[in-house]
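This follows on from our talk about sequence and fold. I would like you to pick a protein and set down its sequence and fold. Go ahead and set the record down below:
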Amino acid sequence: MHPENPFMQVREGLGKTEDPTVEGRLARVPELGLDECQAALDMPHLQATVRAAVKRRMNQLIREERARIDRAAHAARS
């Protein structure tokens, strides 16, 4: 993925491509990591629906990381 634009993809035979539509970007959101989510939110003119989906994805990733840390801490105490 392109660091400034997490919706940019390199495709074999096509080079760098981006689907700037809401639907295309929404399809990519579940694949984004935390840094990529932040990069997406920093993009100018990001569609409101995509922005909301990216924020939900970020919250999901943060919750998963906190749960992983809690499990590790619990296992260390056991």
The first helix runs from residue 22 to 28. The chain is about 60% helix and 10% strand. The chain has a mean pLDDT of 89.
